[in-house]
Amino acid sequence: MTQPTATAASRYADSLRLSVAPMMDWTDRHCRVFHRLLAPGARLYTEMVHANAVIHGDRQRLLGFDPGETPLALQLGGSDPALLAQAARIAQDWGYDEVNLNCGCPSDRVQAGRFGACLMREPALVADCVAAMVAAVDIPVTVKCRLGVDDDNEYDAFAAFVDQQVAAGAPMVVVHARNAWLKGLSPKENREVPPLRYDWAYRLKQERPGLPVVLNGGLASIEAVQAQQGKVDGVMLGRAAYHDPYLLHQLEALQTGAPLQTRQALLRALRPYVEARLAEGSALKHITRHILGLFHGQPGGRAFRQILSEGAHRPGADWSLVEQALAVTERDGGREAA
Ligand SMILES: Cc1cc2nc3c(=O)[nH]c(=O)nc-3n(C[C@H](O)[C@H](O)[C@H](O)COP(=O)(O)O)c2cc1C
């Protein structure tokens, strides 16, 4: 990778302050366009795509994105350095700003394929993968990892894993700050049951002040995010960003000083995108499923959700349904001052 200049490096570090986690079946391009409107400066991540799929699959479907989505990272799955290097090159050619290697997914399918979280036990192989990708592209090659797997409880082993990836050329690390249990827990339980240990991420940062560290796991409020200030370089939100997307907007506004917009105004800004997709033949439900949480905890929020969930799958459903749902939030006093 070409050496970044000091300014490019500090711009990169700044772009790490807020990101939305890669989430299979959730962070598709419709979702990302919506999140981008809410948080113009956040880093967005795709769903994980296996290197083989990038190389042999339908690239338009798997890799296509809206130009407005950037800065955008493609998350790759895999553990074959040559395949990952090829996939990373394709990602760069498609205009991605970063490729990120998944070292955190605990699903049985992923374990069987020898990638995801089980790679935490193969730091040298991961480093080979990172080095191969770094040699193939100019964009940053990063890693999203756990603290360990199963009953691993050695901070030094975790730190050594990170150090090897940094030595191989990764300019930053995203730490989902809990272990992955490879036996006996579903992927969902693996996001809830193993205890969070932010202190490992803090210590990693303290001991390596030059290494940008992004903290992920269980961050679900403004207060929780603010509590990370000065301890890590940035935060990555997953479920909270999806279920309560206005939180992204509030965080972005706090971090940048940009004025808050109302939920209604933000959603109406999505209209041109929605209408363009509908004109291409997409169904409304594929887009609106990502916006159901926009009025989370707000007056009219439940009715908003219900109108969209019930109406969006009907043939011919169009933007007027979204306006109907918005009208309820406005009628019920949802025209809240931002
Ligand atoms: C539906 C869903 C799908 C996920 N898919 C991925 C994935 O493809 N790659 C990945 O690294 N993590 C994936 N994750 C894990 C998240 O990126 C994140 O690490 C985890 O949810 C913890 O963050 P949170 O507590 O903010 O949700 C997924 C999480 C969810 C809820």
UniProtKB/TrEMBL annotation:
InterPro entries: Aldolase_TIM, DUS-like_FMN-bd, DUS_fam, DusA, tRNA_hU_synthase_CS. The active site is at residue 105. GO terms for molecular function: flavin adenine dinucleotide binding; FMN binding; tRNA binding; tRNA-dihydrouridine20 synthase activity; tRNA-dihydrouridine20a synthase activity. SUPFAM superfamilies: FMN-linked oxidoreductases. Keywords: Flavoprotein, FMN, NADP, Nucleotide-binding, Oxidoreductase, RNA-binding, tRNA processing, tRNA-binding. The keyword DNA repair does not apply. The keyword Transmembrane does not apply. It holds the Pfam family Dus. It comes from the Bacteria. Catalyzes the synthesis of 5,6-dihydrouridine (D), a modified base found in the D-loop of most tRNAs, via the reduction of the C5-C6 double bond in target uridines. Specifically modifies U20 and U20a in tRNAs. This is tRNA-dihydrouridine(20/20a) synthase. The gene is dusA.
